[in-house]
Design a protein that fits this description.
Blueprint lengths: L1 H18 L3 E8 L2 E2 H4 L10 H18 L3 E3 L2 E9 L6 E7 L7 H6 L2 E7 L4 E8 L2 E6 L8 E5 L2
Length: 153
């Protein structure tokens, strides 16, 4: 019964997003990066998470300094994330800038949307309501830098 109720709640939640015409934000992941924020495909070759850890250790600070800050208005969004050519499953994590997953209060008071299982050549949707504030997004499975998102009127 609980599983059916959770499924129904999830369906109604997503349907509410569709009814309110949530704006779709498309993001593309390649090895160790999101293309839209960095503006160029660096062509990083990766076969596992450790490859990106090594690449980011050398390049992430300079890449983030040049990366575009995404700016949105408050509202309902669907982040449609695509795995362009990474040969392993990816994910997506969007959260309040000061979100701490270890803090149980943050799970109740802060924004955090995430998921995995994003296979090569596929895309997945992540619905979220964004209020004014600062957010970060990244992929922990294909480690990317923490890109900035600012929501304001």
């Amino acid at each position: 019964m609980i599983a059916i109720r959770a499924l129904a709640t999830s369906f109604l939640f997503f349907t509410a997003f569709e009814a309110n015409a949530a704006e779709v934000i498309e993001l593309t992941q390649t090895g160790c990066q999101f293309l839209e924020t960095e503006g160029t495909d660096h062509g990083f070759k990766t076969t596992k998470k450790a490859d990106c850890d090594a690449i980011n250790e050398k390049t992430a600070a300079a890449r983030l300094a040049k990366a575009k800050v995404m700016r949105l208005k408050p509202g309902d969004y669907v982040f449609r994330v695509a795995n362009k050519n990474v040969p392993y499953a990816l994910g997506f994590w969007l959260r309040s800038k000061d979100y701490d997953w270890k803090n149980p209060l943050h799970k109740l008071t802060k924004t955090s949307v995430s998921g995995g299982g994003l296979a090569t050549g596929k895309s997945m949707d992540y619905p979220v309501t964004l209020k004014p504030g600062e957010y970060l997004f990244s992929c922990p499975l294909n480690p990317t830098p923490n890109y900035r998102l600012v929501v304001s009127d």
